[in-house]
Amino acid sequence: MRDRCSFAAIVLVAALGAATTGAAALEPAKHDAKYPDIGGTWVRPGAAQWDPTKPAGLRQQAPLTPEYQTRFETNLNIAKSGGQEYNPQVNCLPAGMPRVMIAYDPLEFIVTPDVTYMRSDHLAQFRRIYTDGRPWPEQIKPSFVGYSIGRWVDQDAEGRYGALEVETRSLKGPRSLDASGLPLHADNQTIVKERIFLDPANRNLLHDQVTTIDHAYTRPWTIVRSYNRDPDPVWVENNCGADNHYVSLGKETYFISADGYLMPTKKNQPEPGLKDFDQSSK
Amino acid sequence: MNGQTDNRKMLMLGRRSLGFVALAGALSMAVSLAQARDDARYPDLKGEWMRLGSGSFDPGKPAGLGQKAPLTADYQAVLEASLAEQAAGGQGNNSMGECVPPGMPRTMIDYEGMELVVTPETTYIVLLEPMNQLRRIYTDGRRWPQQITPSFLGYSIGTWVGEDRDGRFDALLVETRGIKGPRSYDSSGMPFHQDGQTVIKERIYPDKANGDVMHDEITIIDHALTRPWTVTRSYHRVQKEIWIEINCAEDNHQVRIGGERYYVSGDGYLMPTRRDQPAPDLQAFDRSRQ
User: Fold this and answer.
1) For range A222-249, the mean pLDDT
2) Residue B219 or A122, more confident
3) What sections of A26-178 are H helices per DSSP?
4) Is A11 domain-assigned?
5) Is B30 within 8 Å of A13 when comparing Cβ atoms?
6) What's the gap in Å between the CA of A72 and the closest CA on chain B?
């Protein structure tokens, strides 16, 4: 009788747990033993070029098609002359996927059973990675961070999830992979696959294995970015628009000096047209 | 509370009779149960919330001077100057035109929809307005930091409160400090004091009669006001949420050069925003080459 009672008790507890699953969506999943403890703040430890294991620029050895290799070299030449026209971030456009995973500013993950949220305060981006089992929508409005569906996986079958696998589609541009102007195809058909997981030997180290599939590349390009946990984050608000010194007029990018003058960014840059101003009144 | 005690008793019985395997299972379930018990305390604020009412700060009153904000005489003059400049085609005291975020409390106007993500330690308010602001309201019992770097959203500490003793939280009380400018209450340019000493108190709560309606009672304490000013904004839950990405910079045509605001036309020309506006000084360019 006592055994029957205790068995019934456990069944009841299990039933109570199941019945409250819906409400549990409020609770961050980090409190649930099934999920790895990736909630919180993560900081980039290393370089900001796309593949952090290789030097920036041509030495990234990106598997670009000849056409996009030429575009990349053009971008590098513009940068050498002082221009920034190839880099959409100078006009405060967000990095988008996958560049946002460089983590210019710390990343914050908020894990819930239905959605894993990721915030980057740099150019204010917010990823929603849906883990509720939804199918791909028939129509997706393109965005810089795209539409992400994730799946928690338990590769060791130990009852705990080991990694979050994510696929991201429906991206829009202009985007580049990093500040050197490593290009993505103008067709914006990029697909990004990720595997986000804690380092098995160091729970304060997070990895994101990122595979970029894009028509500007001859093959899928996989790199791994890593992040250190910041247990005591101090959030600094980063609002590009509030202190942006670059302005694009037509095809040219200019600089606004601290004392309010419009300035060239390149030698011999033509000054902007002022045809709509009454020059005679000057 | 009795239910919690009963559950604990039941777990103890289970431990005794089913040994270590059952113990492990029971412990695992205890985690789930504790989690669910915590969750049930919070009001259901999930989903996308859109504003009810106008985009003026007090949605119950007409815009501009019709808001009847209790401004001091000096700051009433700032508002009137802002309205006059806007009437002439300018932006007045409205800095959002240049992609400066609305900050607190203007962001709670909720221009494009917002999402609340409630965790025990922090309530996040994800705002879709063009600057993609994220509020972090700390509910982990922390004290005010000795130093706060001012930001447009400020630093927010919240407390969940239950008012009818049913074991559930009814409202989130929030205080926000450390807010920087330039800010205005709404697009009229209704001003805050330049000293950046604004303190904002909020009571965020679901409507008792309609769980798909949420209210934010906002009280502003600011040296540009003659007294604390309280307004209540309301929001409705969207049944089928659609998150859109809005990036102010993607289609921003306003630019400030020196003390002047200009407009960038669709074909890339810098244009005046008012009659007889001086052109920007181009002395930094080599004019001999033009």
Assistant:
1) 86
2) B219
3) 66-80
4) no
5) yes
6) 23
Q: Which residues of A touch B243 (CB under 8 A)?
A: 128
The chain-wide mean pLDDT, for chain A, equals 85
Nearest to B17 among A3, A241, A262 (CB): A3
What are B242-281's pLDDT values in tens digits? Answer: 888 777 777 778 888 887 888 888 888 888 887 788 898 8
B28: closest CA of chain A, how far (Å): 8
Is B289 at the interface with chain A, CB within 8 A? Answer: yes
What are A245's strand-pairing partners? Answer: none
Same domain? A149 vs A257: no
Report if residue A13 sits inside a domain.
Answer: no
User: Do A105 and A208 have their domain in common?
Assistant: yes
> Would the CB atoms of B132 and A126 count as touching at under 8 Å?
yes
For domain B48-238, the CATH class is mainly beta
Asked whether residue A202 falls in the same domain as residue A188, the answer is yes
Q: Which residues of A touch B149 (CB under 8 A)?
A: 234, 236
- Is the Cβ pair B149, A268 closer than 8 Å? no
Q: Using the beta-carbon criterion (under 8 Å), do B249 and A5 form an inter-chain contact? A: no
Percentage of residues in chain B having pLDDT higher than 90: 58
Instruction: Mark yes or no for CB contact B17/A28 under 8 Å.
Output: no
Q: Does A15 touch chain B (CB under 8 A)?
A: no
- Number of domains making up chain A: 2
> Which of residues B157 and A40 earns the better pLDDT score?
B157
The pLDDT value given to residue B124:
95
Whether residues A6 and B36 touch (CB distance < 8 A) is answered with no
Same domain for A65 and A79: yes
Distance from CA of B191 to the nearest CA of A (A): 18
**A71 within a domain of the structure (yes/no):** yes
Q: What is the pLDDT of residue B289?
A: 56
Residue A258 confidence (pLDDT): 86
Is residue A86 domain-shared with residue A163, that is, in the same domain?
A: yes
A182: domain range? 40-236
Together in a domain, A211 and A105:
yes
pLDDT higher than threshold 80 for residue B20: no
- On whether both A187 and A256 belong to a single domain, the answer is no
pLDDT digits (tens, 9 = 90+) for A6-43: 444 443 334 333 333 333 344 455 456 789 999 899 99
Whether A133 and A227 map to the same domain: the answer is yes
What's the pLDDT score for residue A241?
Answer: 72
Question: CB-based contact (8 Å) between B77 and chain A?
Answer: no
Summarize pLDDT for B102-145 with one digit per residue, the tens.
999 999 999 999 999 999 999 999 988 778 889 999 999 999 99
pLDDT at residue number B78: 97
User: Is the Cβ–Cβ distance between B264 and A247 less than 8 Å?
Assistant: yes
Which residues from B are below 8 Å from A125, CB to CB? 132
Position A142 in a domain: yes
Determine the pLDDT at residue A31.
54
